[in-house]
Fold:
Amino acid sequence: MDVRELVDQARQGRPRAVARLISLVENAAGSPARAGELREVMAELATGTRKPYAARVIGLTGSPGVGKSTATGMLIRAFRRRGVRVGVLAVDPSSPFTGGALLGDRVRMQDHATDPEVFIRSMSSRGHLGGLAWATPQALRVLDAAGCEVILIETVGVGQAEVDVARMADTTVVLLAPGMGDGVQAAKAGILEVADVFVVNKADRDGAQATVRELRTMAGLGEAPWRPPIVTTVAYKGEGADDLLAALDKHQAYLEESGEARRRRLARARDEIEAIALAQLRSRFAHLHGDRLDALAERLLGAATDPYAAADELIAALA
Amino acid sequence: MDVRELVDQARQGRPRAVARLISLVENAAGSPARAGELREVMAELATGTRKPYAARVIGLTGSPGVGKSTATGMLIRAFRRRGVRVGVLAVDPSSPFTGGALLGDRVRMQDHATDPEVFIRSMSSRGHLGGLAWATPQALRVLDAAGCEVILIETVGVGQAEVDVARMADTTVVLLAPGMGDGVQAAKAGILEVADVFVVNKADRDGAQATVRELRTMAGLGEAPWRPPIVTTVAYKGEGADDLLAALDKHQAYLEESGEARRRRLARARDEIEAIALAQLRSRFAHLHGDRLDALAERLLGAATDPYAAADELIAALA
Structure:
């Protein structure tokens, strides 16, 4: 199938075409040499009539075990009740060494497997430095073109990757659960700053109200035009879905009214262009004649140069 | 104080000089424009007689709440009993928005605050994309030059940042604790692959043996020249310190015998050079005349270009 036909089918919302395009993104992330076809896809996608960055992007993050997948499932159902097409990217930062990703998330999302208006895709970063920052916006672009009005990004773990993903979302939801480590741990992981909405999930467990109180104290320290609300949910029972949806809608309204929506999307476009440009330069480093980078590394190890001088040589070799 | 004097003092192991040099690294990570002085420092450090990459680098990672800081403290004491100088980098991936880092780790390490042979430093990535990959090797270089024979890197959270840090360590210790989420969660976060040694901490709690068994099942699936041992500890009581030290020594011996030590250090040198080169190119993007990147982002948002064409324009503008 040629690229134009594939893109046309994805635009019509055909799941297999959408899946193939995201696979192209993922494969190219693992091996930038394979980015040629992807470049064609992106050029073709840009010719569409649908405005780019039209989808509302909602990120869900938090420590392992807080129930992100279950909460994502709850949100899928909530948005489906509104009749909108939903895309889901489950971003797995794991496994630079095997490229593997377990199926855990997808298993729990099986109940949407037969809904043609829900696209669920698990994606790993494949060990490419900056891989998520590179691949996620491009996968978003595919789901966007496929007519998804809402795209949920679920990230595993809490760290720089999550912060990078938060930069791509219009709204970032940070999930916590009682007994998963205290608020200082949460603050250490930097999640207070990236949250637009907090969810205390597993709210039927002991300690839920204490977590809410602690979060309120910590989150309330700063002054900001938007003060992240705290929603309690029991995601596996669907409890709190309406409250969460209301909080998300309120944040969306704030984004539009304040002009923050446009600012975030411009920042996302900047990051997207920059990540692609850096990946291309990185790929050029790897393909410099005579493996220059290896030779420089040997010299650095032997104290025959310093890292900045070596970097200068590397950049000079690009020209 | 001029750079040469500062570097000389750091080489003599003066804590204030070491701290100032790491601050230079950290500040430059937040603002690459300030990397000028750092470049001088690195050139000066390279003139030393101590072999670069001489220190043994041990990474400790795991989910928030498993007790990484306490385990780090336990290892500091264990290595101090051998009389070696120990450096500690507590890497905090948090807070791209405020630059803030809480003091939690440092508070718990206070009992080493007056030991002149222990250098403890908390470092945040300051929101610079690829910040950890950039800053950590340079901070390691400073601690190395300061005569640390062992450097412990403690990372918060589990994700891409931790994988990046694992690439910098000779030995990566992955900590788990009973009841912190099941093994599938751990596997999802990709920590099985980065572990050279597993620690099940809080081994006096219910479920510790179950965690060990589960880990043994999962970790035992693959065949490898090095099969990560599983050590149980109760870090706050110092229990298991000897076992952990023995496992670390055994891994170190394996690294040296197999030639893997040299391979890992070469890879680290490669990454270090590449990260500096990419940061320099990135800084050039940001300073292109007339804010070219912003203009390209506007065009991308308006569907007037595609991300690859925009990236090409950006790279072309470098020349």
Summary: The first strand of chain A starts at residue 56 and ends at 61. Residues 274-318 of chain A form one domain. Chain A touches chain B through 92 residues (CB under 8 Å).
